[in-house]
Amino acid sequence: MFINYEHENHVYNVTTTRRDNYYFITYDNTEYKVEAEEIKPGQLKIKIGDRIVKAIITEGKTEKYVFANGNVYKVKQVELTGRKKPKKKEQEDLSSPISGKVVNVKVKKGSIVKKDDVLMVIEAMKMEYLIRAPYNGTVKKVNFKENDQIEIGENTVELEKK
Amino acid sequence: MFINYEHENHVYNVTTTRRDNYYFITYDNTEYKVEAEEIKPGQLKIKIGDRIVKAIITEGKTEKYVFANGNVYKVKQVELTGRKKPKKKEQEDLSSPISGKVVNVKVKKGSIVKKDDVLMVIEAMKMEYLIRAPYNGTVKKVNFKENDQIEIGENTVELEKK
Amino acid sequence: MFKKVLVANRGEIAVRIIKACQELGVNTVAIYSDVDKKAPHVQLADESICLGDPTPIQSYLNIPKIIKVAREVGADAIHPGYGFLAENPDFAHSCNDISIKFIGPSFKVISLMGDKIEAKKTMEKAGIPVIPGYHGAKQDNKSLIEEGKKIGFPLLVKAAAGGGGKGMRIVHSEDRLNEAIDSAKRESKSAFGDDTVFLEKYLDKPRHIEFQILADEHGNIIHLFERECSIQRRHQKIIEETPSPVMTPQLRKKMGDTAVAVAKAVGYSNAGTVEFMIDKNLNFYFMEMNTRLQVEHPITEMTTGIDLAKWQLKIASGEKLTIKQKDIIQRGHAIECRIYAENPAKGFLPSTGTLEQVEVPTGPNIRDDSGIYTGMKITPYYDPMLAKIITYAENRDENINKMIWALSRYIIMGVTTNISFLKKVLEHEEFKKGNITTHFIDNYFKDRTVAKDRLPVDAIIALAVYDSMHKKSQEVVRYKEVDPHNPWKHVGRWRVSGQEEK
Amino acid sequence: MFKKVLVANRGEIAVRIIKACQELGVNTVAIYSDVDKKAPHVQLADESICLGDPTPIQSYLNIPKIIKVAREVGADAIHPGYGFLAENPDFAHSCNDISIKFIGPSFKVISLMGDKIEAKKTMEKAGIPVIPGYHGAKQDNKSLIEEGKKIGFPLLVKAAAGGGGKGMRIVHSEDRLNEAIDSAKRESKSAFGDDTVFLEKYLDKPRHIEFQILADEHGNIIHLFERECSIQRRHQKIIEETPSPVMTPQLRKKMGDTAVAVAKAVGYSNAGTVEFMIDKNLNFYFMEMNTRLQVEHPITEMTTGIDLAKWQLKIASGEKLTIKQKDIIQRGHAIECRIYAENPAKGFLPSTGTLEQVEVPTGPNIRDDSGIYTGMKITPYYDPMLAKIITYAENRDENINKMIWALSRYIIMGVTTNISFLKKVLEHEEFKKGNITTHFIDNYFKDRTVAKDRLPVDAIIALAVYDSMHKKSQEVVRYKEVDPHNPWKHVGRWRVSGQEEK
User: Fold this and answer.
1) A2-77: CATH, from 1.10.1040.10, 3.30.700.30, 3.60.20.40, 3.90.226.10
2) From the list C38, C46, C47, which residue is nearest A39 (CB)?
3) What is the pLDDT of residue D487?
4) Between chains, do D305 and C394 touch, taking CB under 8 Å as contact?
5) How sure is the predictor about C472, in pLDDT bands with cuts at 50, 70 and 90?
């Protein structure tokens, strides 16, 4: 079985084989021979050599959550063919970081802005989030007006780089 | 809907009708008009007039458990026809009150015993339980010997009343 | 501090100890029998080893097996909890032999205190008041009956090796003494492998009050005040509280000093408890010393702010007590209720079965020490204590109300428990006044087998609503077609969830 | 004592207050908005009334609606919790008007303390030290910039009506001041309906240390020592502890006496908190007084053994404080960590979603105050605080380890939380040394957006094992027949449980 797990834009390529009572898991050129038991649904007790690892896995709609070493990690499963590569999202991001309400629009079509200028103010959970210009440029389109509801990931402003 | 609930050898005869958003429950010649909601599986919020009652119900193999007013009650459902009347169990009981190990048998076939004599000693969960004669009589049969495993409700000794 | 501790116990106390270890950065190894595979202590520990057969003698009492496991996993210490091997000097000795630290006092002290007769003699010599009784070597029934007559009735027959009410009989008249001796000997033999018994005066309006002590290996001893443990059934505590409603500052100081003197007299180290009986005139007598952590230790932790389990680990690893007697302050009021799988209406008969649902009350100053989970099977192999619930409040009155609140939200379905009974005790006027003795339950709840609770109307309505919600309308129709004269058929069928109607 | 209290709040604080009422035998009424129908506070209360629309202004901030409900259910008191209407003098006034007791100080005191400028002026007159700043009436940007230049940079722009960091901006240079004033005014207007701001000197190595007080309606005032709340992000506290690592007995006495003097100066009653800033030379300045129960009140409860929520109820019903200042003892060490649905790697951006799984650490001296449950939807309507976890131990070092243990067992799946981040703060060498200021997170975790955790090997193995256990062998076979060149198809399909393989 081959699976690719995506976590924080990084893809982990894993191969698993089951033989007798063991799982052979290959990752990063290392093979781990482990014994495992599902104590309760989603709750695993895994023996890796002398170490006992306890993990809890829960499935969301499009992702899995794994609790291991005292932390929770959110993981997606991705296909290898490249059709679903992690997006280059961080770069020049003008999308809304949160679902909320647009409380202030500082620019209009044609505005010339400098890097770090505030373009839009979004309020959610009683806090404000500022959308700042990632570079100097000219506003081509403003996608929301004051009091609009905006969803996470929606593009706020189209900005042409100068 | 008619149901008989049995609790501690007492049978409660209940009629339920569902109309609009109300349940009409008749018990002991009183009709209760209630609204109800199942918050989580088995967890009920019931409005009886001005009162809010919270109850939790869990189903076992042959019984239900209901938590109400801060206590848990174990309830069975019984049929009305009389085929399944509560047993008259308390009377002259020589059955084992617990599953455990027989640690001492004080009588044998033909023994003549007096009321309150100890017939058998059963150990369970690190405690001893004495089976005492409920009346004067003669032992007709002893069903267990020392170190036997005994289950709850199994008859220990057959005792003929004198 | 130790690197790895094996916890030779199960249930809530194993959970308690594992958490204490982990907070101190110590690795933990759980042991378990086949039926405890999914038990919380197994899930919590860093490693866990199965001992197989659930019979205690094959698992949690199996010294060679446990010692073997401890060596194999490389444990440098063993914590025995309470019960099982906690007061077994052979076990402590076996640990010594392989240089694994037994977390408790030396095996010599365990041995001395385990022999109730020797313990009393030692204490008498050290000037500690003890209860009049016969602790002699003549163990034939005839001699014991003679000695019993000298002491007078009522008296107690007690197993020399006993504890927790096991092998204990109270005898009110001469003609019952012979049977009681037989029975106590048999129970003691079976439980402890020793049938030596002794006899003791039975006190008037007695209270059971014990003092917690902590003693390090450098000669420092402190006490952490009293626990009132008079509420007992079958000679086993079910409700404990601190401070005791009967205690005065003078008596507390005197008894505390005596408890420290007891520990000093035997060169004690570790956490320990000195148990006293108090009569109605507040005379106190040494009863015995428990050389381990007690079930009821949390109430002391809540009122003193001191973590006894962690201190056991620190002391055993050679650390010095950094707390001075004068710095320990008793604050507020704490109660513990022990929740047992048992039926108070049937003489507290243990109840077995599967825990269909478990819900625990939570809130500030509510502590739940338990080793149970929904789906757990309660077997007859082990003690039927399911959980301990401990509450703290600024004063006794408030705390009694708090505990009643908590017990009213402690839901255990699948076995009969004593939760409702515990509430009835707490709600009793005499309990509220603090008028309690070790006979409290016998005095006020004799009729408990008669007064069975009826099903309250709210429960009936809840059942009716639930069944109405969850009946399959389809089923009702089907039955009508088949047998219109039998209206009961469909209600006999129950369903686990109501998904069809959603 | 009251007969019936309406709790005008939601989440963990509503739960906390309802439990306190119930323990005192007081009936409780919960209010809730449509999205909170299944919330714990609704389940716990004796009665509950739906307010409809989840927008705060339509529900938890809707004074006429809440007042109407309180009358209809026959409540004789309202507890406002914190946030929402807790410090709204109009609400307190409205309660007065219909003779329902508002559980808090008089609306005049709320009004005075709510106006940060007036509060400071009052305190200056009473001889209490305050931070240099501009609290004047000139609110145009030009005047404010002039005043700001007089005070010097860095300085703070603060909403006069603000609290909890809302409407607060720190400005390091003149050229950013104009934008900060605009933004603070806008946020303040939106949150509190008032855009008055003031300016204040920003202190060097400042610590936020506050004192808890309790004042009854008969003139008795006590303080319950300090809380160190310097660990903040976005000017909101996330870790609080007591005692403060920087406190000395002399300073504690001085600040405690000052806190009592502050309360006395305004005729305060109820629980309250006097917030101070302390600079590196341990000079302290009055900042503001919060006229309500604080989020972080549990750490004071754990170290003093006093139940603040119960005392609020007792005081409001006219009872006298029975605790004297000399009887209050600060014992051990307590920490609180606030668990937020937020992503520390993205500037602590709130995270919304469904809580797929919630598991809470339990154990002695671990308190979890939460209002969440598995399956709960975290919406953008309310504050993203999910829970508070509080631990107590005998000393700070032990307690930090205990809190790390607890956080490592706090499982929330479905939204991103700050749990891992909290652990990193607790594990930081400077935190362990007690070298903390309100800039701690900015100073040491600036690069938090860069240093993303990689998926550890244990998590990868767990995922691989889980997926291997739960794949349908059938599916694999089917795929092979259909498309032998695409080995990925079957792994894309997930299943909720592995029953088929059992």
Assistant:
1) 3.30.700.30
2) C38
3) 39
4) yes
5) low
- Whether the predicted pLDDT of C492 surpasses 70: no
As a whole number of angstroms, the distance between CA C310 and CA C294 comes to 14
Pairing mode of beta strands D270-278, D207-215: antiparallel
Indicate the pLDDT class of residue C499, thresholds 50, 70 and 90. very low
Q: In CATH, what class is B94-161?
A: mainly beta
pLDDT bucket at C327, cuts 50 / 70 / 90: very high
Cβ pair A109, A142 in contact under 8 A: yes
Q: For residues B126-130, give the mean pLDDT.
A: 73
D354-360: average pLDDT: 95
Q: Which residues of D touch B42 (CB under 8 A)?
A: none
Give the nearest partner residue to A39 out of C43, C46, C47, using CB atoms.
C43
Contact between D63 and D85 under an 8 Å Cβ cutoff? The reply is yes
pLDDT digit string (tens) for D316-342? 999 999 999 999 999 999 999 999 999
Contacts of C28 (CB under 8 A, 6+ apart): C4, C5, C6, C7, C17, C18, C21, C22, C44, C45, C46, C47
For range A42-53, the mean pLDDT: 89
Cβ–Cβ below 8 Å for C43 and A52: no
Check if B52 contacts D (Cβ < 8 Å): yes
pLDDT at B143 over 50: yes
Lowest mean pLDDT among C132-136, C382-386, D35-39, D204-208: C132-136
To the nearest whole Å, the CA of A44 is away from the closest chain C CA by 10
Q: Is D305's CB within 8 Å of C405's CB?
A: no
pLDDT, mean over chain D:
90
Candidates D12, D19, D23, partner chain C, best to mutate (most C CBs within 10 A): D23
* Domains of chain C with bracketed CATH: 4-103 (3.40.50.20), 132-201 (3.30.1490.20), 205-331 (3.30.470.20), 335-453 (3.30.470.20), 461-502 (no CATH)
| Cα C68 to Cα C72: distance, rounded to the nearest angstrom | 6
Mean pLDDT of A100-115: 89
Domain boundaries, chain B: 2-77, 94-161
What is the predicted pLDDT for the residue at B126?
66
Please check whether residue D340 is in contact with residue D386, taking contact to mean a CB–CB distance below 8 angstroms.
yes
**pLDDT top residue among A24 and B101:** A24
Find the residue in B nearest to C499 (Cα).
B41
Q: Do B44 and C465 touch (CB under 8 A)?
A: yes
What confidence score (pLDDT) does residue B92 get?
57
CB contact under 8 A, D38 and B39: yes
The complex's ipTM?
Answer: 0.81
Residue C396 appears among annotated catalytic residues: no
Beta bridge partners of C101: C77
A79 pLDDT exceeds 70? Answer: no
Q: Return phi, psi of residue D306, to 5°.
A: -105, 135
Question: What does the alpha-carbon distance between residue C142 and residue C102 come to, in Å, rounded to a whole number?
Answer: 41
Q: Which residues have a Cβ under 8 Å from the Cβ of A142 and sit 6 or more positions away?
A: A105, A107, A108, A109, A120, A156, A157
User: Which of C67-103 are b and which e, b meaning 16 or more Cβ less than 10 Å from the residue's Cβ?
Assistant: bebbeebebbbbbbbbbbbbbbbebbbbbeeeebbbb
Q: Which chains touch B (3 or more CB pairs under 8 A)?
A: C, D
CATH topology agreement for domains A2-77 and A94-161 = no
d(CA B67, CA B61): 17
Q: Other C-beta atoms within 10 Å of C418: how many? A: 26
Searching chain D, which residue's CA lies closest to the CA of residue B46?
D47
Among D3, D31, D47, which would you mutate to test the B interface (most chain B Cβ atoms within 10 Å of its Cβ)?
D47
Provide the 10 A C-beta neighbour count for residue B158: 14
